[in-house]
Design brief:
The chain is about 60% helix and about 0% strand. It is mainly alpha-helical. The longest helix is centred in the N-terminal third of the chain and has 41 residues.
Length: about 90
């Protein structure tokens, strides 16, 4: 109709619609990034996780020397040997 005054709300709506489209695009991009990072995190944690219970070889037994004694020297034995070496010097 000739001579009608344009509604000022229409002028406000147009920029808001374009901003809405841009924000939706950013949201979609953010969701994709989050999905990729979540997948990456899962793979990284899988590499760091200890092996499953059945895959682990279990504790190792020490080899035994003569007459069933442990061949590894105890801390007390090492300490005594060091003291003896110091006395000899």
């Amino acid at each position: 109709m000739a001579g009608e005054i344009p509604d000022p709300r229409e002028a406000q709506i147009a920029p808001l619609k374009s901003e809405n489209v841009k924000l939706r695009e950013r949201l979609a991009q953010s969701e994709q990034t989050i999905a990729k990072l979540t997948d990456f995190r899962g793979h990284a944690l899988a590499r760091l996780a200890p092996p499953a219970r059945g895959d682990h070889p279990g504790p190792r037994r020490r080899r035994r020397g003569k007459q069933g004694e442990p061949s590894a020297r105890t801390a007390n034995q090492r300490h005594r040997d060091i003291q003896l070496m110091r006395q000899d010097s």
